[in-house]
Structures are given as C-alpha cells and as structure tokens.
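Review this chain:
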Amino acid sequence: MTNPPQLFDRALLRQRRKKAAATLEGVDYLLDYVHEDFLDRLSVIMRSFPYVLNLGSHHGKLTEHLITLDNIDAVFSLDSVFEMVSQANELQINGDEECLPFKTESLDLVVSALSLQFVNDLPGTLSQIRQCLKPDGAFIAALLGGESLAELRHIFLMAEEELYGGASPRIAPFVDVRDMGHLLQRAGFALPVSDRDVVKVRFDSARHLMKELQAMGASNVMIDRARKHNSKRLFQRIDELYAEHYSEGDGRIYANFELIYLMGWAPHPDQQKPLQPGSGAINLKDVFKN
C-alpha cells in the first residue's frame, strides 16, 4: 500500500491552531453556520445516538449543542490541539484526527465540522470513522470545498506574477463535492449523500480577511508553501487588487466559502437498498410522450 501524499504540515497546523484557541470565538461564524445545519439534519432523524464523537471539536461549541439533545447521552470531543479541546465540556480527548482511539463499532454518531479538510489521508480517516460506528450508525461532516477563497487565490496569483514573475501555493487544494460520494462509498458507508452550500462573507479589506483566517488558525499550512518572508509591498498590492476586483458598492470586499456536507451510514441489514438496474416498476414509455 502506498502512503498518501502529504499536502499539509500538520505540526504547523497544530502550532497555529494553538494560538488561535484564544481568538477563535470571535471569528467562528462559519462554524456557527455549520452547527445550525447539523442540528437541522439531526432533528429529522428519529432515533437515539447514545455515544457521539465530535471529531475536530475546535472550542467545543458543537458539543454544547449536542449534549442538550434528548436522543444523545454522551459526547466525546476530540481535537489535536489541547488548548482547543480543553474548552469543551467533559469527555475531552487530545488526539489525532487521522488516528482514532476508539474500538470497532463503539460509536452511534460521528460529526465533524470544518476539520477534515486538513487531514492528509482523507480516505483513510473516513475508513476509520466507518469502522468506529455501530451498524446503522451515522456520520455527518462539513468540509471546506475547492471553491473556497477563490477570490483570494486569484489576487495572490495576480500580485505575485506582477511583483515576482511567478506564484507559489497559497490556498489549500480542498476537496470537490463530486468526489465525496465516491470516497464515502470507498470507505464502506451505505446511503452516502454529499451536497454543497456557498457562504459569502464581507470584510473591510483583504488584510482584514487574512487576519481573520489567521485568527481561525486557517492560514497557509501547505508543505509546498513559499518559505520566504512576504514583503509589505505584496500585501499592499493584494489590498489594491482585491478592492479593484472583488469589492461591493460600499467599498467592502467579499470572499466565498464553499461548504461541502457529507452524510453516510454504517451498513445494516434493515436499511433501504437501491434498486438494481432494470428492476423499476414503472415503464418510462408510459410516462413520457413520444
């Protein structure tokens, strides 16, 4: 078996998220948006989830919501950064999202909000999650998608080409929604579903946007990132170009975040099964006109 490509410097990611543990609450609007979506999805599932894992728990806000639900008994919060997970209520686990410390078929539900886009082995992590779930256990996740921060990626490219004659990787190559259903199936999930949403956020300037990304602990941690010090002229030019290309009537700029939602189930004999090709009971000739 070949090792997965190493795209992200996970040690640097932990270092930056450690600093962000004190500032995340002021810039957690994307997490709040995802948490609300998760709770809506769970509200229509009429079953109990005694043991739940909040994987990549950040500062534990999702855990606080989950433990108030009548159909949930206990929530484990796991995060690779102690300063993050220590803010969650009880059952804290300072561990690696890519190496889950749970027994096979020990969990009823796994949720993950905006953490899995930074793992190097996403197929392997999904497979571990699937193995940890009891039969008919559920998995719900949200990841940043490949269209996130397309505006910032474009502006960095323009500015670096203009000033340096070439550009370096700045924005992570996040997942594509078209690939996620296949990855869920590959990991062994039944009834896989993936969908997307785009959230538009406005900022005072490009510098304000980048400062908020830093406060989230979401700045560039790609292994192939440029190691040279960025000049003040680069950031000044980024501000100018961003305002020129992606500003609105009031002078503020905007950035789009693509959110990819995943849902799948650990297989169980009583689950619905897709019909085999050719087994449909309706003849399409009887539905459509000639």
Observations:
- The first strand starts at residue 49 and ends at 55.
- Strands lie at 49-55, 72-79, 92-94, 107-113, 133-144, 190-203, 253-265.
